[in-house]
Amino acid sequence: MYLSKVRLMPGRLDNAWEWHRALWTLFPGIERKANVSAPFLYRIERMNLAQGAEVLMQSAIEPQKISERAQLLAIRQFDPKPSEGQVLAFRLTANVTKTIRDKDDPKRKIRVPLIKEEQQRTWLERKLGAGASAIRNLRIQRHPPLYFLKGRRPGKIVTVTFEGELVVGDSQALLQLLKGDADHPPGIGPAKAFGCGLLLIRRA
């Protein structure tokens, strides 16, 4: 896998949907298909509409150095090898939601954000699953709602950032969240196109 520091060029950054489209330009020749995950996850580290955005991106394949909308600033290969019982510091920006039935159309399902910290922690524990036997020193940072425009359709998501330490349970289950496999894409939760889902770990 590759971990890259990327600069998104100024222009159209006020629409969160454009962040994902800009990063795609670093992977020329990769066909974009409906309902198929992108070959990368990312999180916005800094945003300045006039100067551009700084992004941390994880990808299964090596990105090119520059495009008309994004510039690769640094890159390194890494191969995580967590072991059972190991304590790792982690960070995750996520769209923490639950799915409910639409009152006006019971056949339609919609996602609604989980607001209470207790609900958010439970969501995180469920998503980490067997990959983490325990979570320690958890801090939850709330963010303002994120608005976007996809075509002519407006949307909004609510995100939080989790930081803390996890104790590795099943190392293969944790690796699946980090790297994915043939049946499961990497990352945690929905809204990956909007900078959510990238689980970052390091030795505590």
Element layout with pairings:
Elements: E1 2-8, H1 16-24, E2 40-48, E3 52-59, E4 70-77, E5 87-94, E6 97-101, E7 109-113, H2 117-128, E8 132-142, E9 146-150, E10 153-157, E11 160-168, H3 171-179, E12 199-203
Antiparallel strand pairs: 1-3, 1-4, 2-3, 5-11, 5-12, 6-7, 8-11, 9-10
Order of helices and strands: EHEEEEEEHEEEEHE
CATH class of the largest domain: Alpha Beta
In CATH, what is the homologous superfamily of the largest domain?
Answer: Crispr-associated protein, domain 2
Radius of gyration: 17 Å
Low-confidence stretches: none
Tell me about this structure.
By secondary structure, this protein is mainly beta. It folds into 2 domains: 2-77, Crispr-associated protein, domain 1 (Alpha-Beta Plaits, 2-Layer Sandwich); 87-203, 2-Layer Sandwich (Alpha-Beta Plaits), CATH 3.30.70.1210. It has helices at residues 16-24, 117-128, 171-179; strands at 2-8, 40-48, 52-59, 70-77, 87-94, 97-101, 109-113, 132-142, 146-150, 153-157, 160-168, 199-203. A 4-stranded antiparallel beta sheet has the order 2-3-1-4, covered by helices on one side. Strands 8-11-5-12 form a 4-stranded antiparallel beta sheet. Strands 6-7 form a two-stranded antiparallel ribbon. It is globular and about 45 Å long. The model has no long low-confidence stretch (mean pLDDT 92).
